[in-house]
Prior knowledge:
The complex is a heterodimer. By secondary structure, chain A is an alpha+beta fold. Chain A is 44% helix and 22% strand. Chain A has two domains: 34-86, no CATH class; 91-176, PH-domain like (Roll). Chain B is of the alpha+beta class. Chain B has three domains: 17-192, no CATH class; 202-258, no CATH class; 353-461, PH-domain like (Roll), CATH 2.30.29. In chain B, 39% of the residues lie in helices and 28% in strands. The A-B interface holds A 11, 13-20, 97-98, 106-114, 116-117, 119, 141-146, 148, 173-176 and B 1-2, 4, 110, 133-135, 166, 288, 290, 313, 400-401, 403-411, 414, 422, 424-431, 440, 443-444, 446-455, 457, 461.
Amino acid sequence: MSDPGDHPVPLSTEPADARPDDAMISWRLPSPLLLRVRRIEVAVVTVPLAIAGGVAGAVVSTALAAGIAVAVVVAGALGERFLARRVAAWGYAERQDDLMVRRGVLIRHQSVIPYGRMQFIDVTAGPLERSQGLATLRMHTAAAASDARIPGLEQGVAAALRDQLTALGEAQAAGL
Amino acid sequence: MTAPLPDELPLRATSAASDQPWHRLHPLSPLVRAGRQLMSLVVLLAGLLVANHHRVGGDLVTDLVIIAIALAGGFVSWLVTRWQIADGVLRVDTGLIRRDSRRFPLSQIQAVDVVQTGLARVLGLAELRLRMAGGDAARGGRLACLRRSDAEKLRRDLLALSVAGTAAPAVAAVAAVPAREARRAGPAVVLPERLLFRVNAARLPVAILLSRTGAVAVAVAAAAGLTIAVSGRTSTIAPFLPFVLGAIVNVWRQLNGQYGTTVAAAPDGLRLRSGLIQTTAETIRPGRIQAVRLAEPLIWRALGWCRLEVDVAGARQRREDQGEGQRLRAVIPVGSRAEASQLLGELVGSQPLLPRLAPPFATRWKAPLTYHFLGWNRDDRYVVASRGRVCRQTTWVPLDKVQSIRWVQGPLQRRLGLATVHLDVAGKRVSAKIEDRSDAEAREILAALPDLARAARSAAA
């Protein structure tokens, strides 16, 4: 075990009736730049789609072309509203013996992955994420169902977290 | 799977890998490995002979050439394949042009299978398969083929070595005997086994026909029969033929795979034997069972039958059955409740935990049909959860095998104040789902289980 001092949440080892309080867990959030990345992603899809729709509509009438383009842009804008909530839903918390990750707005997920169960940890960054200096951290356990990820970490944070998780994993490693 | 610390890995650090002798596979193994393709070629050949017997010459020569090439390739592959056990690692070197050297740390073995295809049985050969964690069937070790008695001895040695590798001093003495000497030690020392279950040979075909596979086969056959009856000509079933064949193959595969299943407790693990034409003898190392699932399909339930399956972290390697990777291994393909609960007692402790804790009332609105079947329970070693209406599934997960815990809440569940907790274990997307608990209870489970699982892990270690 590494020094638990830098972990914000001293988790009691009391079983069963220790009631968790969401307020007790101090969630760390992804970088605010993640929202920008997601916005660009939506724009990259919406704008060409609006143009293509407009051009296709223009064959019939200008009004239709304008209608399609506006509709697509409005849909994109609505998606953007949803994005902000989705981005805000991501969070992770390093606890003494495990990592908690939460995500999702409509369907909410909250995963607990013991450090000792992590098989390997990936840091990936797509071109868009890279342009904003972000990266995605993926944690894999031996169970196919349980891979968790944290998107939108600043690259330095992601690398540090990866190293820290790896060290913790080695210290607590448990066989299958 | 966690890599063991390097200083634990070599079983006998003093012996250099090069000291250990290299072994070859049995010379007839190319024949067995090509067996399936060979069989279909022979069938094709016979078909061709019958179809156009007036101009046999060219086809026959072509086919013979193909067979000869296949066998020659097999022979070369046999020639360049060799294996060795040294320092607690099985090494398999193969490949003529692209050399391929694989190492399988024996301490990481999940299960060892001895498989005999029909042809291999005739020739007295057997294939040895190692199941390692990771799920990718191609990653497991394969020694195809060895003489049957050799394969069984080798399995015993491997299991003994694998246990020794993970520190069990009592068995280390067995492990100290090099595999080769053990192979020469005359008649194999038969380890005492305790029979736990034997499938009822008459019940199995009926059960398969009453399962989903059987229902599909019957439906397809009925459709084909109906078509013939309506049209009055046999030729009209031609479009059905692939489906009919597929359905028959599926039924056959299940029957072949599950026929004569016996489960026995051996000192080196749980031994499962099954098979009609192709026989398989699996040995699952103690403590390598990740989950146990009791399934009670609707029709079987009426007959008082059920199926008991176990999950092991390595995929079974059966090239012919791709779906196998997703399915669990049936220890009881079909059995009575009494048989199942007896074996369950062996697998998860004498008093299997029952999913007694009923879901809250609000669950009725979300799952009116399954409500009565939802339940869960836990003690300090296991968590059990049940679900499903048509096929009731009860899953036991040892707490020390839990890989991650997930809490999930959908929109409807949120409205009703419910949530589901999944306990994932290694392997094929198996998880115990504690479904539709009240919000407070689900939070409590999510908070309590990581600690319980950790306690169970340290107790097991």
